[in-house]
Design a protein that fits this description.
Elements: H1 5-17, E1 22-26, H2 33-42, E2 46-50, H3 56-70
Parallel strand pairs: 1-2
Helix pairs in contact: 1-2
Length: 93
């Protein structure tokens, strides 16, 4: 997701190095301090969306919301979602 880590770094880099609008999706995108700071700096160029790739309805709603802002054209998609290890250990263990 785009809320932190590599995903957030990619969002920040796209905003700094291009003039295109950026959609940043993730389960916690709306609560992300990093995305909130970037939204304050870049305004409407950044659209944070709450989306869970494991939930088809969530993905569909996210795509529709992005389409309302971006239109029917998509220039680049970066899918940066992680999966938890089957043991239940998270990425910080």
């Amino acid at each position: 997701g785009a809320s932190r880590g590599i995903g957030l770094a990619l969002v920040e880099s796209l905003l700094k190095r291009t003039s295109v609008p950026v959609v940043a999706a993730g389960r916690t995108a709306l609560e992300s301090p990093g995305l909130q700071a970037l939204r304050a700096q870049y305004g409407d160029r950044l659209l944070p969306l709450s989306m869970d790739v494991a939930d088809a309805a969530s993905v569909k709603a996210g795509v529709e919301a992005a389409g309302e802002v971006m239109g029917p054209r998509l220039g680049l998609l970066v899918h940066s979602a992680a999966m938890m290890h089957p043991s239940g250990r998270g990425e910080n263990s």
